[in-house]
Structure formats: structure tokens, C-alpha cells
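Quick question, first post here. What does this chain look like in 3D?
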Amino acid sequence: MKGPENIDPTIPVRQEHQFDLAKLQAYLNIQSPELGKIREIRQYPGGFSNLTFSLRTETGTYVLRRPPKGANIQSAHNMEREFRILKTLEPHYKKIPAPVLYCDESEIIGSPFFIMSQVPGLILRGSNPPTQKLDWSKIAHALIRNLADLHQLPLEADTIDQIGKPAGYISRQVQGWCKRYLYAQTDTLEGMDQLSTWLLQHFIEADETSLIHNDYKYDNLVLDPANPEEIRAVLDWEMATVGHPLMDLGTTLAYWAEAEDPKMLYPYNLSWMPGNPDRGELVRQYFEARAMAPRNMEFFYVFGLFKVGVIAQQIYARYKQGNALDKRFEALIHIVRSCGNQGVLALEKGRISQLYS
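> Answer (accepted):
Ran it through. C-alpha cells below.
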């Protein structure tokens, strides 16, 4: 199967995201003169978190990342942290974009930002399904196998110290995300409230530690267009840390919409398309790849759904406050509601897959 190298589409920079290219050029001339003169900058339209731009210069094409307007840059929008994670991982894991430059001066483009290499290839975005025939079973297997590999990376103590704090990770995450939801809450959603209460009553102690990506799904993978089950790179390391690997798998399961799930979840992951395994099979493949006995994933799946709901709620809250102008964000409250309801249904059914059968 052959295809173009650059499949992920770009658009002209949205008006609310534009910045002074002359200032950026002047900064790059001093800090990274090897990048050369800026030829063009365009925006990647996908995603709901940090803003991503294609930066074409006379020496090549790069990717520029910056936080959205109104974001709390002390958290997942911390550009310095994402850049540092890429630098830390570079000697240990090759399937990442190469970090090029970090800038903490907000006056250059209006916020801190970093630049990394562009990894060309196929990105499976729910908003832009591929037209070619794909073997979804093989791609899903590659996805979950790669996640298992990530969770088995040998990390030195100094690497762990630079990326995260594994002690007390699960309790800290549950309590932290419950607080974030209360802080960002705009509507009373019974399902999300039930999940918050249940998670605070049922969280467990961590018994394993690994590198975790925390946002691992199809649209954060760059695939080889000629061989889509070959993963070239994993993107969006803004939420990566060191913690319990099943928390990471739980987030992947939360994004893993099945054909029977609410159709409003379809645009966020192409896992519902025919040929994809269901969540139960994905879990089986994960534990098989790690040569581990299967474990009950109910807690981790429900937490993943709650976290995804909180992320959507935070973005929706910024939209309601006027700090995010993208009209797509108006519909996110329905995603928050759906995440809560999906989690309640999983608890009621006692399983994580085929909830509507």
C-alpha cells in the first residue's frame, strides 16, 4: 500500500491563534539559526488541547507546540515539561519527534512554546477517516503491543525523577482529577458525580510502576503509510509521567469507542470501525504482550472515562468563560455527560466491553 508521506492535513492559522512571525524569526535567528528562514506556518486543526503548527523553513519542516489561550500552563499545558520529557526519553525510546528548541519567553508568540522535528506519516484522526482500506485488526494489535513495550522500558532512577513521582500515584490521581472536575464544573451531571464518589471510595494502591503516556490512542500515533501497522512515532507527551501502567491502559480503553457505544464518541477515535477488537480483546492482547495474567480492569476503565470527561469539561469551561473561541468546544459538554453515563453503565453491567448488548 503506497500513500503520501504527509497525510495529516493542515489549515491556515486560525485568526485567534495567529502571532507575530517577525518576532519568532528574530528569536530563531539567535537561538536556532540552523532552522533558517521561515517559509510558511500552518495549523493542525485536530485535537482539543495544546495548539500544534506546521513550521516550514528553508531547512525543513518542523512542528511548533504552544498552550491554548486561557489554559493553566502549570499542568498538562506546560511546554517546558513536555519538551523535557522528550529530551529525557530521546536516549531510551526512538519513536518520538526529536526535540529542537524550548522558549519560555511569552512575549515572542504570546506564550511559552517548543519546536520539534516533524515525523511524516499517516495519523488516524476520527474527524478525518482514511479513504484507503486498512487492516484495523493488525493496526490495533500494533497499537496495544507498542503500549505494552512502553510500559516495559527500563528506566533509571534519574530518568524517573525527571518525569514523575510514582509514590502514591493512584490516590493522587483520583483525588486530583476529582478536584479538577469540581473546579471546572459548569453543569450538574449525575453520571460524573457518581463516578467521582465511586472512585474516591474504591481506589487501590499502586503495585507496579512504569513510564505512562496518559493519552495513548490512534490519533497520537504516526503510522507508515505503506505499512500502517508499523508505528513511526508516538505524539503528544504532555501528560506523560511515571505511574501505574494500568492507569495508562484504562485511558486507552476510555477512548476506545465500540460500534455499540454512543455515536457522539465516534469522532474521537476510529476504534469503532469494523475490524477493530472490542475493549475486552484489547485487554487480552495487552496482558498477552506483557506475559502477565489478566487483571480486572473495571477501576482503571472507569477512572479513564472520568479523566477524559474532566479533560473535556476543562476545555468546555474555558469556552464558556470566553477563553476558547473554537465552536467545536460547545459540544464538549455532551462528551462529559456521555463519559459519566458510560462509566455508570460499566459499573452496573460489571464489564468494560459491549455495554449495550
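The longest helix spans residues 298-320.
The CA atoms of residues 349 and 355 lie 7 Å apart.
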